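Task: encode each sequence below as structure tokens.

Item 1
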Amino acid sequence: MPREQHRQRRKIDARRLAIDIARQAMLQLYRLSVERARRGDYETARRLIEHALEIHRRLRVRKPIPLRRAICPNCHAPLVPGVTARVRLRSRGKHIRITTTCLLCGYMLRIEERKS
């Protein structure tokens, strides 16, 4: 294998490792923020989410799927059903509309999915 290809492969492997570590860190910060929100410490929960989003922005890593729908895009609070969020389901023919309302700022996150 030529030297340049070897360097390129090493660079790609290092990037994949960095992405994997970043995703794990974001998920761990999210879990900690949910724990704090359940205890009623919403400000610390928000700060933990802010740190996770900072990792996302700095390393240009996609947010893990649990984070995409579990964070209020307005106030960055973790959306925990019954604690910081209200979840409503509405059936619309072949689709289901999931409406998640943040109880801290009132933002409504609407997602439409196909019935399975």
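Item 2
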Amino acid sequence: MDHSTLDYYNQNALKVAERYESADVTQLHDFLSSSLKPGGRLLELGCGSGRDAAFMVSQGFKVLATDGSASMIEQAKQHHPELAEHMVHLKLPDGLLNALGVFHGIYAVAVLMHLSVQDIESTISTVNSLLTAKGRFIFSVPARRDDVMTNEFDSKGRQFTALSPEGWTDLCLKCNLHIVRTMISEDGLGRDGAWMNCLAEKP
């Protein structure tokens, strides 16, 4: 992940975590919980405030939550202390190459777009190798974004790769994950734009 992107989250972790915790993510959580079998071992990429990991734990999943920002990890521990022993500081894509074991499901909410196309493909390829047979990968990315600059950085200085929904699903197919379903949802903070939630599965 680009250094300027990590710098943004490290320097604004308190504000970002509070914003994440205030978002209406009912649609997202329904999508996550209905796409995976309870009791499975899950890996979260980019856990942010710990909001989604805490929800999945409450639904009976075993979650290893990771984030590239050390400051966001600390915020997640404060907001959701029950996750403290199940969090790892891990930067994408190379951090995924460490021995993490295998997982029934891996999910990434509002994370992949902060990587270059090359790093997105590398991440998805490694995700495939970490999934069990029939394991599932769920990710949420903007379906539309109007404030991305022409140099692929947004107004906050974060790297931002804007792909079409087809572009995202094509990367999954290229990495030998087939698409089970997609869903378009509104922004949980009421901002302009929409999100694509995608469920892919390993053969």
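Check on item 2: Residues 141 and 168 are 9 Å apart (CA to CA). Strands lie at 41-45, 62-67, 87-89, 103-109, 131-144, 178-186, 194-201.
End of task.
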